[in-house]
Write a structure and sequence with these properties.
Elements lengths: L1 E4 L4 H11 L7 E4 L4 H7 L3 H6 L2 E4 L2 E4 L1 H9 L5 H7 L2 H21 L1 H9 L1
Parallel strand pairs: 1-2
Antiparallel strand pairs: 1-3, 3-4
Helix pairs in contact: 4-5
Length: 119
C-alpha cells in the first residue's frame, strides 16, 4: 500500500509523521511534492494530489476520508479510529468535515502548486 501525502504542508506532515512512527512495513510513504512518478502511479495531476490524501492499494486509488479509513485499518494503534469512523452516519460527518479542512489546507498550500506550475 502506498500513501501519497503533501510533506510540504506542516499539518499534513505532522500527522503523517505520527503514522510513520508505527513502522508498518506494508506502507510506503510517498511525498507528492513535485513528484511526477506519484502523478503517474495515481493517474492524478498535482492539483488533485495536493487537494486530498491518496492511498493506492493494489491498482485501486482511494482518496480523502476513505483513504484515512484504509490507512487506519492497517495500523494497530489507530484501528479504533477505523472502527468508529467507518460507521455510516459518522463517516458522512467525517467526510464532510475532512473535505472542508482539506480545502482550506489546499488553499493555504497552493503557493506550492504555483511553484510547480511555473516549472
Amino acid at each position: 500500500m502506498k500513501v501519497y501525502f503533501n510533506n510540504s504542508c506542516k499539518i499534513c506532515k505532522a500527522e503523517i509523521d505520527l503514522y510513520k512512527k508505527e513502522k508498518i512495513e506494508e506502507i510506503d510513504w510517498v511525498d507528492i511534492t513535485d513528484n511526477e512518478l506519484a502523478e503517474q502511479e495515481t493517474s492524478k495531476d498535482s492539483k488533485q494530489l495536493l487537494r486530498r490524501l491518496h492511498v493506492k492499494d493494489g491498482e485501486k486509488v482511494i482518496e480523502g476520508a476513505e483513504a484515512f479509513l484504509l490507512l487506519w485499518k492497517k495500523m494497530p494503534k489507530y484501528k479504533f479510529l477505523y472502527k468508529i469512523f467507518k460507521l455510516p452516519i459518522i463517516f458522512s460527518i467525517f467526510n464532510f468535515v475532512y473535505e472542508i479542512v482539506a480545502f482550506f489546507l489546499y488553499l493555504k498550500n497552493r503557493k506550492q502548486l504555483n511553484l510547480i506550475e511555473k516549472k
